Amino acid sequence: MKLAEGTVIGLIAGYYDVETAAGIVRTRARGVFRQKKQKPAVGDHVEIQIDDKGMSYLVKILPRVNRIGRPAVANVSHVLLVISAIEPDFSLELLDRFLTFFSWQKVRVTIYLSKADLIDDKKFEQISDLLSYYQKIGYPVFTNYHDVQKQIPGMIDKDQIWTLAGQSGAGKSTLLNHLKKDANQATGAISTSLNRGKHTTRKVELFKLGKGFLADTPGFSSIDLTPIKINELCNYFIEFKRASKNCKFRGCQHLKEPKCEVKKLLEEGKIMPSRYDDYLAMRMEITEGRMPEYLK
């Protein structure tokens, strides 16, 4: 009997595909997880046990960095956020919701503007000007698919897990189909097949991209911000957090406090007004404890 460590890259009808140094192993989880009310997720770093007959069992979930989305992906290090230029229309409000949520989850974000080829030059210039603000405060921004295809694989470091996010219809599936040309290699390399019957469709799948993985998941299409503590919300607007070091009061909420650096930068045009407006709207949402109906 031997132990091996690996990463869960797929879940099929109760079986887990685990990528190990020796290849991909299909395994089942021990009953102890049900007793503890735990469930391994795609992206989990795990320990598997392989007996003398080649049978394998998932026996331990190693410590997680995070577990986000429905269905869940564990240990997400970066999100490629797909925001459409049209159909559905470009929305700064949705962009800010996603950025705030992932900042709360301590996950870095790269922004990709999809469907840019479907709008005219004037509209493209307007959106690009808006996105330049986000680039300035620290978010990488891509407005061209070819740049994404060329550069994203090189940005994924060893063992990192990236995943796609964005509103329904933004073009996540189209982008994924272009990026995951080698995805079939993962399913074709299974070394231990315990389940030979029909499999249900994979809900979440990781495939190799760059030096790490990209998650194929239907999750992250809508964002619920109500679990965020209201006095911590301002910390998830990265330029607010940066500026708050110069606020007079520690824990400044950037509302009516005197000598607030965020309000000062807002008045000087150095913070985008829509960002501050969205911050106020999110505070209201958290106070009321429910998402606006049109965002559900």
Automatic annotation (TrEMBL):
Entry-linked PROSITE patterns: ENGC_GTPASE, G_CP
GO biological process: ribosomal small subunit biogenesis
GO cellular component: cytoplasm
Cofactor binding note from Swiss-Prot or TrEMBL: Binds 1 zinc ion per subunit.
Protein origin, superkingdom: Bacteria
Subcellular location: Cytoplasm
Annotated positions binding Zn(2+): C247, C252, H254, C260
InterPro entries: G_CP_dom (IPR030378), NA-bd_OB-fold (IPR012340), P-loop_NTPase (IPR027417), Ribosome_biogen_GTPase_RsgA (IPR004881), RsgA_GTPase_dom (IPR010914), RsgA_N (IPR031944)
Keyword Protein transport listed: no
Family annotation (SUPFAM superfamilies): Nucleic acid-binding proteins, P-loop containing nucleoside triphosphate hydrolases
MF terms (GO), sorted A to Z: GTP binding; GTPase activity; metal ion binding; rRNA binding
Cofactor entry: Zn(2+)
Protein EC: 3.6.1.-
The keyword Hydrolase is assigned to this record: yes
Keywords: Cytoplasm, GTP-binding, Hydrolase, Metal-binding, Nucleotide-binding, Ribosome biogenesis, RNA-binding, rRNA-binding, Zinc
Domain named EngC GTPase: residues: 74-221
CDD domains linked: S1_YloQ_GTPase, YjeQ_EngC
Residues making up the signal peptide according to the UniProt record: none
Binding, GTP: S114, K115, A116, D117, G166, Q167, S168, G169, A170, G171, K172, S173, T174
PANTHER family xref list: SMALL RIBOSOMAL SUBUNIT BIOGENESIS GTPASE RSGA (PTHR32120), SMALL RIBOSOMAL SUBUNIT BIOGENESIS GTPASE RSGA 1, MITOCHONDRIAL-RELATED (PTHR32120:SF11)
Task performed by this protein: One of several proteins that assist in the late maturation steps of the functional core of the 30S ribosomal subunit. Helps release RbfA from mature subunits. May play a role in the assembly of ribosomal proteins into the subunit. Circularly permuted GTPase that catalyzes slow GTP hydrolysis, GTPase activity is stimulated by the 30S ribosomal subunit.
Family designation: Belongs to the TRAFAC class YlqF/YawG GTPase family. RsgA subfamily.
Protein name: Small ribosomal subunit biogenesis GTPase RsgA
Gene name for this UniProt entry: rsgA
